[in-house]
Write a structure and sequence with these properties.
3 helices; single chain
Length: about 60
């Protein structure tokens, strides 16, 4: 049980750092993915495909 909680916490922390790093890299071309509960959940659950889908949704909605 504690091991599973540790895995979830590690995935959430990794997702926050990945979104933050992506925002740093892509800020020069004005792409910004907000760090909120939904976006962190998507990236935690789906990984990099989820991150790319968030970037794609940024372009679709803009």
């Amino acid at each position: 049980m504690i091991k599973k909680i540790g895995i979830v916490i590690r995935k959430v922390c990794t997702a926050v750092f990945v979104i933050y790093g992506l925002n740093l890299i892509l800020s020069s071309i004005n792409i910004f993915i907000p760090i909120n509960l939904i976006n962190v959940g998507v990236v935690s659950f789906l990984g990099f495909p989820g991150l790319f889908s968030l970037v794609l949704m940024f372009f679709v909605t803009k």
